[in-house]
Amino acid sequence: MTGRDTDKATDVGTTSDSGTTSGTGSRGFEAVLIILYALFATAATARSVVQMLRDFSFAPVAYLLSLAAALTYIAVSIALVKGGRRSRPALVLCLIELVGVLGVGTLSLLDPALFPDASVWSVFGQGYGYVPLLLPVIALVYLLRGRHRAPRTADDAR
Prior knowledge:
This protein is an all-alpha fold. It contains five helices and no strands.
């Protein structure tokens, strides 16, 4: 092992020549978040498209909100893939998502007439086991911890 290889092996979170990350900088949890967001993007998109094609006039507010949830999940997935845990767009989108879940969840309880059919975020994501409520909270904690852990370097800007 050369001196350069030794530096790489001991540097936490650096990328080795094989392209894998070492140490605590591993993107394992981030990969799980991306997979969850991609899964919810697929589910919410399918749900909203089916609902709107089936009978849009039955519950237009709920169906449009399901579409908004789908678009949010797609955007967060892309932001996480492109920017990782220091992604400002991912942080902003997760905040928007949380506001959406809380707003729609509250509205669906206060005025159920607006929701003759459920949306992804109705009753705080009850139809999805409250994962739509937990997902942005977990993502925000992860993203905020990543912003405070290590300062940005010249390599991060690339």
